[in-house]
Amino acid sequence: MGSSEGMGASSKPANAPSQAPPLKQYGVTKPISMAGPTVADLKRTQNLEKFLADSGLYEGNEEASKRVEVLQRLEQIVKNWVKQLTRLKGYTDQMVQDANALIVTFGSYRLGVHGPGADLDTLCIGPSYVNRESDFFYTLHEILAGLDEVTELQPISDAHVPVMKFKFDGISIDLLYASISRLIVPEELDISDVSVLHNVDEPTVRSLNGCRVADQILKLVPNVEYFRTTLRCLKYWAKRRGLYSNVTGFLGGVNWALLVARVCQMYPNAVPSMLVSRFFRVYTQWRWPNPVMLCPIEENELGFSLWHPRKNPRDRTHLMPIITPAYPCMNSSYNVSTSTLRVMMEQFQHGNKICGDIDLNKSCWRALFEPYLFFEGYKNFLQIDIVAADVDDLRNWKGWVESRLRQLTLMIERDTFGKLQCHPYPREYIDPSRKCLHNAFFMGLQRKEGEVAQEGCQFDIRASVEEFRHSVNSYMFWKPGMDIHVSHIRRRQIPCYVFPDGLKRSRPSRSAAQLKKSPTSIHGNEVSPTEHGEKNFKRKHDDRGVRQNVSLKKHCVSPPVDSLTGGSPCLRAGDMSVHAISDCQDLKNVRSTRLSNCEQDQFDRRMSPESGTECASNSSGVTSVSSNGGSSPEDVGSALVGGFVEATTSGRFEDTTFMEDSVKLGNNTLSGRNNDVLQKELQAQLEVLAFIPFQIFKLFILYLFYCPDISHVIVLKGALCG
């Protein structure tokens, strides 16, 4: 802080008593601490930087040179494009000669934290007579489409920030356009000057602000290199923990940059290892919706709308405001919902706990970046399958549906009054066994913590799914073959292809689960399990003591069987559903029973989703949501997707039987299974049980209720098949 000391000394006479130099303020508040690093902090920073390098987060020289070449080539293309348009619009030869356009970068590349394979965020700045709709998204699009170097060209003109996505010589590029109020764009244009915003529309302001915000961030942090290392670390952590996605309601690149920059302001002399630890410490204690701001909100006579919760009622609904530092200031995290904020706060607490262990030399950096086990954290899921006829259609259709997943989360939160929480997982999956072009997204479901469950209480989200369907159907570029299939599945029905090694993880036994409570060793250091895992383990075992008090009575919520039809041809699980439900008509008088351990294993193997057809991963009744907006018998099933999730008095979801599941969702899950064989086996089990004396049978049932290793109860009532 040499500059601060110089300022303090120059303002006082030589004989004045010495005083401590004033603290330099970064941001809107004074620093929390001016402490510098210790020897241990420097060593931990060294280890952190080595870990980041070993993880492949730094770009090589060859790829860096290629990016520069691509930027130069792209800039030459847009310059020629503007000159061509200037001539076509009838301007003079001198205007044609002076016509110009610029390519500037923003995002991670401008901040200096991009990694290998990262998208290249670029902005094309053109003159006032070159517009976005007809010139950028039509003329320039045609030029790019005709280049051999350009592939996967995808215009998104109706986005909040209109963009063209494509690959140029293998480099992924997001290209925005801003038409400024000048006839000639100078080469030395200063986009940080607010005058560049004169007489431009809102999309242009949002496009220009990407570059302006990046420049402001670098100006407002005390140490740019420490900021970059810390941001690179936190972005990698967010991706590993499933939190890096603005479109699904989490945080994107600019959000993480602003959060990290604010921590750098609070601890101006801290090194990256300290900043990472302080990051989690600060944001586990942050009182949302108090905003995160790097500088005071700037007002200007230009009159653009600013983030102001006192004046703008819509701004009061924002749950996690992270305000951009460039005029006009905006909330960059307006996508965050109640559920995604809850997930992020849980992950912040998890990171804070591990960083505390690292500071005490009880753990290492690798433990912080362990991937989040999403499919082990929930018992109920929504599976959203996206299919299309060809690769280009799938890319466009998937982008559209993914942008609407956040709306599905908000709809479910609204319709269940916040009692049912959703966790959209920002990663797409592909089933290698399917022949159709498809992608799959998953969403975890759970009851709100602390919410008292009532016996027989059900969550009806049929209206939410139907509203989501209508939202998806509004896609203006819809083509035949574009479909979306939504299904409710449980943990035991999760398809194998979502796991890294392709092997489904079996649920831990009682002894194995108890071992999770004890610390595990990582490189000789003890690391406690995550808080999320501990909570799930505690709920699972605490509920067993009251399970015998839970009524097994279920309600029939199925439409008539003859009103259902088979699913989409590429999702055969739906085709089997009608026959499976029809075959159960003769089982009306079958009583509740349990299978022995050996019999249960055989039963599970027969009923396993892996034993089905090539599309058997949709094992909980794939519901086909027609994308053509028409009314069909399939829509009856789509209205019931995930519509009824049984809740027990213990405050968690209860796994209902496969037959009840099938009827609830309007489809069955018995893909590729022989129901006649199943019926005979169940009848054989009842015949064996008929020979057991009643009292012994009664004791046997009581024993099964208390036995934690037997988890299935097969309940088949006549009402379910009637």
TrEMBL record:
One of its GO terms (molecular function) is ATP binding. Its EC number is 2.7.7.19. It comes from the Eukaryota. InterPro entries: NT_sf (IPR043519), NuclTrfase_I-like_C (IPR011068), PolA_pol_cen_dom (IPR007012), PolA_pol_NTPase (IPR048840), PolA_pol_RNA-bd_dom (IPR007010). Residues 227-370 form the Poly(A) polymerase central domain. One of its GO terms (biological process) is RNA 3'-end processing. Residues 27-221 form the Poly(A) polymerase nucleotidyltransferase domain. It catalyses: RNA(n) + ATP = RNA(n)-3'-adenine ribonucleotide + diphosphate. One of its GO terms (cellular component) is nucleus. It is found in: Nucleus. Residues 529-545 have a biased composition (Basic and acidic residues). Its cofactor is Mn(2+); Mg(2+). It is an enzyme of class 2 (transferase). Keywords: ATP-binding, Magnesium, Metal-binding, mRNA processing, Nucleotide-binding, Nucleotidyltransferase, Nucleus, Transferase. Residues 509-523 have a biased composition (Polar residues). Residues 374-430 form the Poly(A) polymerase RNA-binding domain. Residues 1-28, 506-545, 602-634 are annotated as: Disordered. This is polynucleotide adenylyltransferase. It comes from Pisum sativum.
